[in-house]
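Repro:
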Amino acid sequence: MKNNWSEKDAKQFIRKYTSKGYTEDIAYRVYTTQLLGNNPKLVLHGGGNTSVKTVARDLDSKKYDVLCVKGSGWDMGDIEPEGLPAVKLKPMLSMINKTKLSDHDMVNFQKRNLLDTKSPNPSVETFLHAFLPHKFVDHTHADAILDITNRPNSLEICKRIFGPKVGYVPYIMPGFLLAKKVYETYQKNPEVNCLILLNHGIFTFSNSAKESYDLMIKNVTIAESAIKKMKSKKIKQVRPTMNTLRPSDIAPILRGLLTDDNKDDTFIINFRLNKDIKYFMNGVGVKKYSHRGTVTPDHVIRIKPYPLVIDITPKDDLISFTEKASREVKKYKSKYLSYFKKHSKGKSLTMLDPYPRVIYVTGVGMFSIGTSHHASLIAGDLAETNARVIASVEETSKYQTIKEKDIFDIEYWSLEQAKINKTKKSMQGKVVVITGSLGTIGYETYKLFKNYGAEVVLLDIDNKKVNKIKNSIPELCMYADVTNRKSIRNAYKIICERYGGIDILISNAGSVSEGPIASVSDNDLKKSFDDNFFSHQICASEAVKIILKQKTKGCLLFNISKQSVNPGSNFGSYGLPKTALLGLCKQYALDYGKYGIRSNGVNADRIKSGILDSSMITSRAKARRLSVKDYMEGNLLSKEVIAYDVAMAFYHLAISKKSTGAILTVDGGNIAASMR
């Protein structure tokens, strides 16, 4: 493993953070923590932690010996000093002779001794860091260490390949008892500078940040070299399945099967395929070796104790795949229920949802699952790590991890669950697609739905705008021509592979044209119908196909102009397709209401946007002999309506579960343009 320490970079960190009032200790701690955290073979998504023992002043100006340890909610790869809450060290050390401490008391004790009570909660392994006497302590879940320790006779193997400077700790659930065991192990041999926790990870420590980091790289490299020298035999592969099923067809089906009919909860599904995934899932014994538990216990809270493997044949079509996948999901749920009942006896626990977080479809690829896109990516990354490590072990030995009961205890450990259990937002788990998304109304709608927790996809025909913005936002933003069915199908294919499907379509794109209807050319009128009617039909019809595959209900929302009910002079070429769009909205309500698909529209007027731009507003105001202000506030409420108001209308229609075929007017009050 490459050692990425750089004296130049280290000095830059020292200059940067000391100029902000932090000590060199903290600067070094941030630097090496980031080095470790940015190596995916060492640390993934919150796994691992680091600490430094130093001195800090409290508000009373007194100096205290403190332990600055990684706090909850911070990833090592981008940690800042704020992510290293300072805990008073003396009270922590006073507990060293205590025989036991409950999780509740442990957390409370750590919190009580924070220098700043507003700091994030210290790591559950804070006592472990405190009990080791060294200034710098580093902890990772290095792939190579997990490879070595998740096999039969792992202790003997470790003793053979590592030198006398390494100590060993059997698997113990993280917390106070583990801290005590680590301390006892160290006391027996104070010469060690590295501790390997079997089936868990590795600790290195020193009074120098560089030396502790170097020790981590050194020992992981020793493990990597040892693995390479082991007699290896490739896992026998099944013959690749030649099938026409596409991930974009499969994902919505899986998404529907993972949805409880009695709840509105939906998962986000992300597809990925690479050589490691292919090798792992096509192994002859994949259903056995993939079900022996995660390579390190804390992975279980993200990917469950085991994945679901679905075998397909060359003859499987979408119908037969759906039937097969349905059976396999039911089996998985039943197995998980048995697992919960077995290990929860005598405990007051509520079962988590019984659905897998990783699904392998042989010959297709891996689908990772989460309550958000971010969570699905984390699940995918952890699943990949598990696949690589397990496959590596199986090539030289037999993958063997901790007992199932121990995995269960971690999965249902309140301190671990706290990492992922956050307040759910109203749109969490929903995939929202917005056309014309980079216009004023579309972008405001994107921001609002994002704020409510939705996974939002931005589609727009302006490629310049797309390229300008897509790298500055985390959401999927791409070019799409709403008048071209092939373009929309391609966009929806990407959406299904990235998110698993579509829940809400906000069909917002359109264009405006004007002139007396008799003078409008046939081509211009046809173009207006393409932009303002047929585009909505294309986007809606393709979205409905996906929603029907999911069987998770859904919602179509159309941007309908007041021109549809109150046509204006010289705007016939715009108003006529909008009138047709009003009918289309109601037709979808009629035809697909029985499937739980709602169809509603927003009737907005006089909104400053790309269609009604400043020049048009000025011109209209002048024609009416009004100021721009009076023109924009020319409604019953005498208030200007803005894009945010339209976005809110879309949102309220999206959450109105018993409204379909409805048109919500947003114009400040205009009786002439109201629905009849």
